[in-house]
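Changelog entry: the Serralysin record was regenerated in this release. Current contents:
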Amino acid sequence: MDDITAVQQLYGANMSTRAGDTVYGFNSTAGRDFYSATSASSKVVFSVWDGGGKDTLDFSGFTQNQKINLNAASFSDVGGMVGNVSIAKGVVVENAVGGSGNDLLIGNAAANDLKGGAGNDIIYGGGGADSLTGGAGADIFVFGASSDSNRAAQDTIRDFVSGQDGSISFF
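Regenerated structure tokens:
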């Protein structure tokens, strides 16, 4: 991630790099093998620099517990590894798809589409009008600030079932 920052300070940010809607991980449309995962045993290590569009981190094929963080200058733990996927400073990735483990999905200030998949997931949308889907399992939807879902940017929980899912938590 620091390499991307250093190059951009010298030459400026290339906003035409992957400026359309891009998927990283499974079902990748990034055009580079190192951004792709093809099986549950794939080892992915990359930092995302993306010029725009509606972008997605798709780690749906992994069975391990994962932490997927969509905030810029953050690291995610995917596919059984720690800190192996990062999002460069200044980049907005809008969407994330978890796998069959007990995943933690952390959104950012954009309107995120977060899908937990199977497992007992914890989903935190953050700011923006988010779409939150837990999938199978006893999922927990977290709202950490009053700005996480308000009249101007309402979050939508797509599949909460009382008595089956975990909880909706306000902190």
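The mean pLDDT is 89.
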